[in-house]
Amino acid sequence: MKQAEDLVLKQERERHAEQSEKALTLLKLKDEEIRELKERLLKSGTSLANTNELQEQYNQSIKRETSLQQTVSECNKKIEELSAKLQIKLNEYSELESLANSHEKEKDALEHKPVSYTHL
Predict the structure, then answer these.
(1) Distance CA 33, CA 27 (A)
(2) Which of 11, 45, 54, 120 has the fewest CB atoms within 10 Å of its CB?
């Protein structure tokens, strides 16, 4: 009977050893699977961080572009104002130049006009 009990105990130990070995193998596989998932998650997290960084850079460039467009618009408005003022000044200058030419012609005409003493 003792031998039968020993045999049963031996078989139980072997079965437990096999189950332990299977469980250990499963644990190793699960551990490897978890490690791979962590790596993928890390990569996707890095990718997400890169995507977020790129989105932020894009948003900043849009803000800069909008700001530059506003500045250009303000500059164009100022150019229009200055062009209008310049045109007014050019018109005034042209009028003064025309008036000066007219006076010069009158002066030349008076200098070259023969003097008439008949009304004296």
Answers:
(1) 10
(2) 120
